[in-house]
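pinned: reference chain
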Amino acid sequence: MYSLLSSLVLYRNLADDSVLADVAGVYRDLAARRDPAGDLPRDVRCDLAARANAAAKRLLDLATTYGFDRDLWADYLAFCLLTDENSFSLTAERRGAVDGGSVNALARADLSVFLELLRWDFSDLSTDLGAPAFESLCNWKSIPKQRANYFEGVSREVRSLSDALAACAADGGPDAPAHAFALVSDAYRRLGVGLFGLNAAFRIRRTEDALLRDAYTPEAYSVGTLQFVPVNNARPVRLQDIVGYDLQKERLVANTQAFLAGRPANNVLLYGDAGTGKSTCVKALLTEYADAGLRIIEIYKYQFRDLSRVIEAVKHRNYRFIVFIDDLSFEENEVEYKFLKAVIEGGVEQRPENVLIYATSNRRHLIRETWNDRNDIEHDGDVHRSDTVEEKLSLAERFGVSINFSTPAPKLYHQIVLELAARELPGRFPDEAELLKLADRWEIRHGGMSGRTARQFIDYLAGE
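pinned: its structure tokens
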């Protein structure tokens, strides 16, 4: 196995720090550390068995995260192929496998190595080391999983490619590498490569954080000291699930569709009263358009210093990224908004055409103003706006589209309650008047009329 990995060219990075490298190292030392009689000293056998079991645990942890099943080794190899970013995989993501390209021959050679790895017999780890873990991982039966606890979409795609490549490896004919090449290059073009291809929503974090520096996080995609962490439990919501606000949804969808089609589009600010569905509308875009290449990266205010690095990491990828900032506002003494201003517009580098910023806020102008901000207003014939006020208002003005979500009127609030009840509590409240009376009592005690209040009211009824 170690010699096989040494022949890899395009996928060579897999041999650096991976389960594959760990297992290959065990096989290398298994051959090299025998005594002259061909036996393994007891301490060597114990050391190699411990290393083999540690590699098996890493593989099992990854399999648990992504919901692999049956042959965890085959699923792992398919996962490696789908997530390794190299000159071939990134080109295939953007343009497909171009006929006649010299890199194709290298890709076929590397894939022939993977076909051999798919056929690998781990029985010698059992007989020589007393470490049967890898044999059992190749014939695995997973327990049923709850959807929120693993990456269901990744699991589906990985296992599909795994089954196809395993059939190709079992065939073993002279056309097997070409067949594997077609399968993998098609997956790159259809799904993309890396965790950006397999996932739709992300958060970011820094590996400089002492709590994360030494953590093994197979689900994170690293760019320098910045990690993109996929979100695997996003609540699936569709725009039609949001009652009312049709004009607001139309404007948001129109801008997003223009963005996905490569036409000019604007950064978007969704502002207005709390609980009116601003954040839900943005999240619903992912359900509607993930298959069209939309990706969302959620960042928090304290991470604005990393905004330019986030954009740098994604600007050459074959996806459309929305950087999502939820509940955006700044207090009087906070200056993080200046980082956001510099990224949205301004600076030497032009904003990439595949990145937009969507933000939600309860404040129209985002930054808290005080009367002290107007102390430098001059009165000399005309009234000139304060420089401080202009500085603060300029951030909101850099969003080309501003969409207002106001508190629903009683009629709309009642409509939201009735539609949610019909969808989730069918038949429980035949008397609509009684249901609406309860809803009115609820909103008086729970923050007023809003879509969020209606949602909480229905959840309360469902839990009774």
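why pinned: The beta strands are 201-206, 221-223, 226-230, 268-272, 294-299, 320-325, 355-361, 378-380, 382-384, 401-405. The radius of gyration is 28 Å.
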